[in-house]
Amino acid sequence: MTGPRHGLTVTETAVLEVLRRCAGRVVGRATINREAGLDHCTERRCDSAIVSLRRVLGPDSIITVRRRGWMLTGAGAELAGELFGPRPAGADAPR
After folding, report:
1. Do 73 and 63 form a contact (C-beta atoms < 8 A)?
2. From CA 77, how far away is CA 74, in angstroms rounded?
3. Which H or E element spans position 4?
4. Backbone angles phi, psi at 67, to 5 degrees
5. CB-facing half-sphere around the CA of 62: CA atoms within 13 A
6. Which helix (H) or strand (E) holds 84?
7. Is the pTM of this model over 0.90?
8. Are 13 and 80 in contact (CB under 8 A)?
């Protein structure tokens, strides 16, 4: 997991990295918690990170897909790219 960047906490950074890897796809809470290393936290920790990320990236940066999870929008991915740089090679590869 990468350290904090641009005022984001370690947790927020990890959640954003998961959303970036899965850009264009809906990602559920369980997947985010697992891939962001939040297994030891409450289920709602992910929700809290999403709220914080929306404050940084803007309210339209992450779409909530009811009963399924969240998806980073194109604009959200662009803003995340400004914070983190280009997405890593193989970003679309399943983990």
Report:
1. yes
2. 5
3. none
4. 65, 5
5. 27
6. helix 74-84
7. no
8. no
Conformation bin of residue 58: beta by default, left when phi > 0, alpha when psi is -120 to 50:
left
**3-state class (DSSP) for residue 15:** helix
Distance CA 74, CA 42 (A): 29
Say which DSSP state 63 is in: E
Residue bearing tokens 């809290």? 48
Structure-block tokens of residue 24: 């264009």
> Any idea where the domains of the chain sit in the sequence?
10-82
Q: Does domain 10-82 have CATH number 1.10.10.10?
A: yes
- Strand blocks (E) in the chain: 62-65, 69-72
Strand partners, 65: 69
CA atoms of 41 and 44, how far apart (whole Å): 8
- Tens of pLDDT, residues 24-81: 899 999 999 999 999 888 878 889 999 999 999 999 999 999 999 999 999 998 888 8
